Amino acid sequence: MTALFSEPKVERTKTHTRQILIEGYKRQDGLWDIEGYIKDVKTHDHKLVSHVHPANKPIHEMTLRITIDNSLTIVDAEAMSHSTPYSPVCERIAPEYAKLKGVQIKGGFRSRVAELFGGTKGCTHITELIGTMATAAIQTTVGNIPVDPAARPLSVNGCHALDVSGSIVQEYYPQWYKMKE
After folding, report:
1. Do 130 and 88 share a domain, yes or no?
2. For residue 151, pLDDT beyond 90
3. How far apart are CA 66 and CA 140, in angstroms?
4. Looking at the structure, do residues 85 and 173 belong to the same domain, yes or no?
5. Do both 160 and 102 map to the same domain?
6. In this structure, are 162 and 141 located in the same domain?
7. What is the pLDDT of residue 7?
């Protein structure tokens, strides 16, 4: 395997690890499950206002499952908090994520998520998973659900490489190409 990073220029000590895992599943009933997992672990005892959280024990460990249909509309959502810094208060917000039901993964999705769960209306860590899970939902379903051939693909103008005025769009999606002014 090639190195993921350049060699560090100074000696250092790891103090924190965050793991995020997103997996997509095709269900037998024609729907799709996207599961997200987030875990934070510190290598040292960590002082919180209420207590000292021990080293190497997850301070955050949360999961979120969304179920989507072929239109990328969320038809079910379930969040769980397995390890939190302020138990049992942190765990109380998990049922709020059922509010994702009916939200469609399309333009404006992240703004809608911010409306629903921004600030004290949600858990920072569970909410952070949602954007990545939306991208994974598209990756999970792409090529597996029918798309309107006349509609612009979601990926066009969704990143630098697929800029509507770029060479990739010009070559592979000429109907959506727009020359820069």
Report:
1. yes
2. no
3. 13
4. no
5. no
6. no
7. 92
64, 130 contact by CB (below 8 A): yes
> Does 88 sit behind a cis peptide bond, omega within 30 degrees of 0 on the bond before it?
yes
Q: Are residues 101 and 160 in the same domain?
A: no
Cβ atoms within 10 A of the Cβ of 176, count?
A: 14
**Does 123 reside within a domain?**
yes
Total structural domains in the chain? 2
**What burial class does residue 143 get, using C-beta atoms within 10 Å of its C-beta: 0-12 exposed, 13-18 middle, 19+ buried?**
exposed
d(CA 133, CA 117): 15
128 confidence band (pLDDT: 50, 70, 90): very high
End-to-end CA distance of the chain: 43
- Looking at residue 148, what is its pLDDT? 82
Are the CB atoms for 22 and 30 separated by under 8 Å? Answer: no
Rounded mean pLDDT, 82-110: 96
Question: Could you give the angle at which helices 124-141 and 109-117 cross, rounded to 10 degrees?
Answer: 150
| Banded model confidence at residue 179, pLDDT cuts 50, 70, 90 | confident
